[in-house]
Amino acid sequence: MHPEWCFLGEGPSDMGRRQRISRGQRRILTGLLVAACLALGAFAVGISALTGGESAPVRGADAPEVAAAPDLANSELIEARAAGLDARRAAEKAAAREAAEEEAAAEQAAAEQAAAEQAAAEQAAAEQAAAEQAAAEQAAPAPAIPADTTMYLTVPKLGLNDIPVVEGTAEASLSQGAGHLSGSGYPWLEDSNTYIAGHRLGYPGTLSDHVFYYLPNLVEGDEIIITDSGGQTYTYAVSEILEVPITDLSVTTPVPGRDVVSLQTCIEDYGDYWTEGPNWFVRYVVRADRVS
After folding, report:
1. Closest CA to 187 of 250, 143, 128
2. Residue 10 — pLDDT band, cuts 50, 70, 90?
3. Is the sign of the CA dihedral 179, 184, 186, 187 positive or negative?
4. CATH assignment of 151-290?
5. Rounded CA gap, 174 and 164, in Å?
6. CA 110, CA 146: separation in Å to the nearest integer?
7. Which residues partner with 265 through β-bridges?
8. Which of 64, 73, 125, 146 could form a disulfide with 230, with the two C-beta atoms 3.0–4.6 Å apart?
9. d(CA 237, CA 261)
10. Sign (positive or negative) of CA dihedral 168, 171, 173, 178
11. Do residues 165 and 196 lie in contact, with contact meaning Cβ atoms separated by under 8 Å?
């Protein structure tokens, strides 16, 4: 007998039995471990199937930390969207500005076209009026030339009615009313300056008495009417007032392109219309253009 067996109080048979028990326990433990491993493997396979077969990378303890990819993608997406929004706004502003410019250009073109059409219409109307006037003048018979050059003067504003205008400006003629300057025009002739003179004071008891005394009262537009010995009338409207020295005969000459009548009297001085002589330094002339 081995000495330690006795010391422990065990025999050979007891030892064999414990060995058999230990082997059985080891078999059980080994089976449990295998089963646990199989269970863990099945669990891992199931998890992999649920997550699409992807597994999270294992980061070592010493690996540097990397920023999350989803956050970076979101930031870039936001910036891209903001840039796209700015570009769209800029495009919309450019389109609006271009549309406004096109509208303004269209309005200006329309205004210019309207102005051109109006100018063309006015020109056409003027040409038509001129043509009608020319036709009327051609159709109207020319005034007959009277055998007697005596005329009769009417100035409604001055109260003068059918004042005789005889040929010449000598006292014998002026004393009969007013005198026609020989050599000047007549109403029945085109482009004439029919020049008629009369006294400011004249002679009492005759038609020359103060006949042109109120001539300075006439203003532009006032009416003057001449009737010839044949009964034809010629109407004029005052257009000019002239004051010239008694030596200036230019007021007696024709005015190119105009049919006028000139009524002349004398005044004491320039701008002095009511001093009654005795010098009569200035000729006072009222000129009127024929209107009918």
Report:
1. 143
2. very low
3. negative
4. 2.40.260.10
5. 10
6. 59
7. 284
8. 146
9. 9
10. positive
11. yes
